[in-house]
Design brief:
Radius of gyration: 23 Å
Structural class: mainly alpha
CATH class of one domain: Mainly Alpha
Distance between the termini: 8 Å
Strand content: under 5%
CATH topology of one domain: Rhomboid-like fold
Order of helices and strands: HHHHHHHEEHHHHH
CATH architecture of one domain: Up-down Bundle
Number of strands: 2
Helix content: 55-70%
Strand order of the largest sheet: 1-2
CATH superfamily of one domain: Rhomboid-like
Length: 291
C-alpha cells in the first residue's frame, strides 16, 4: 500500500506553485484587497463588470487548512489524470471547471436580485469547485479504486463521490459559510465537460443488483439435462480486445502513454482513446491501489 501517486505531473506542480505563491502573498499583504478585486463577488461581476473574478477566485484561499486540503486533493487525484490526459488537457479541464463553477455560483444571486433581494453578499474564494471536478473525473475514470477515508476506512472512489455529491447538494443554503453551490457547480460543469469530450464512462454503480435484493427469492427447478464437459474457446472480439495478462495490459497502456508524451492526447485516434479508458478501468479493477 502506498500514499498518493507515484509521480507528480508538470501541470499539477505548476498549479501548486501558483496557489501557494498567491497564498503567501495574501498572508503578507492582507486578504482585503485581494478578496475585493480578485475574489468572486456576484454583485461585482454582474453589476461591476469584473468579469475576471470567476477565473481569479480559485487561486485565493482563506487559511492554511483551506489551501492545504484543496492542494492535497489536487495532488492525489490530479496527478494520475494528467498522466492519462497530458498536461495541456488536464490544465484546460481544471481551469474550465473552476471558472464554470464560479459562473454557476452567479445564478442564485442573479435570481435573488430578480426576486427583489438587495442585501450584501460575501466574496467566494478557493479552488474547491475545480477540485470537486477533479474528484468526479477521477471517480469516472477509476471508479473501483479505493481511498482511505480519515486514513482508516477504505472506500471505493465511486461511492465516496456519490456521498460527497449528496452532501454538497443537501448542504446548500445551510449558512455554514461554505459556498456549497460552487462545489455543486464544479460537479455539474465537470460532468458536462467529460460528457462532451467522450471521457465520461459512468460510475459503474450496480443499481440492478441492489434493487434485486428487494425482490422475493424464487426457487425454480431446472429440468434441463446436465451439460456435458466440453471445452470451447469464445471468439475474439474485433477491434480492441481485453488482454487477460496484467503485464500485457500494462505494456499496452505504457505504449499509449508514451505516444501521448510524444504527440499529445489529441493526436490519438478515437479507437486509441477508447482503448486507453478501457485499460485504465480494467487495471483499476485488477489492482488494489489506494491513495
Amino acid at each position: 500500500m502506498r500514499f498518493g501517486p507515484q509521480k507528480m505531473g508538470d501541470g499539477v506542480k505548476q498549479l501548486l506553485i501558483v496557489n501557494v505563491a498567491v497564498f503567501v502573498l495574501t498572508q503578507i499583504s492582507g486578504m482585503g484587497f485581494w478578496a475585493e478585486w480578485f475574489g468572486l463577488n456576484p454583485h461585482n461581476v454582474i453589476f461591476g463588470l469584473r468579469v475576471w473574478q470567476p477565473f481569479t477566485y480559485m487561486f485565493l484561499h482563506a487559511g492554511i487548512w483551506h489551501i492545504g486540503i484543496n492542494m492535497l486533493m489536487l495532488w492525489m487525484f490530479g496527478s494520475e489524470l494528467e498522466k492519462l490526459w497530458g498536461r495541456k488537457e488536464f490544465l484546460r479541464f481544471y481551469l474550465v471547471s473552476g471558472a464554470g463553477a464560479g459562473v454557476f455560483s452567479l445564478v442564485p444571486y442573479f435570481l435573488g436580485v430578480v426576486s427583489g433581494y438587495r442585501g450584501a453578499i460575501p466574496s467566494i474564494i478557493g479552488a474547491s469547485g475545480a477540485v470537486y471536478a477533479i474528484l468526479l473525473a477521477y471517480a469516472v475514470t477509476y471508479p473501483d479504486r479505493k481511498v482511505l477515508v480519515y486514513m482508516i476506512m477504505p472506500v471505493k472512489v465511486k461511492y465516496l463521490m456519490l456521498f460527497m455529491g449528496f452532501m454538497t447538494f443537501s448542504s446548500i443554503g445551510n449558512g455554514d459559510g461554505i459556498s456549497h453551490i460552487t462545489h455543486l457547480g464544479g460537479l455539474v460543469v465537470g460532468w458536462f465537460y467529460l460528457r462532451r469530450n467522450g471521457r465520461y464512462r459512468g460510475l459503474n454503480i450496480p443499481w440492478r443488483q441492489w434493487l434485486s435484493k428487494f425482490n422475493k427469492i424464487k426457487i425454480v427447478k431446472d429440468d434441463s439435462p446436465p451439460r456435458t464437459k466440453t471445452s470451447s474457446v469464445p471468439p475474439r472480439k474485433g477491434g480492441w480486445h481485453r488482454v487477460k495478462n496484467e503485464a500485457d495490459l500494462r505494456h499496452e497502456m505504457d505504449t499509449l502513454l508514451d505516444k501521448i508524451t510524444r504527440v499529445g492526447y489529441e493526436q490519438l485516434s478515437n479507437q486509441e482513446k477508447e482503448r486507453l479508458l478501457e485499460l485504465s478501468s480494467q487495471l483499476s479493477k485488477d489492482g488494489n491501489h489506494r491513495n
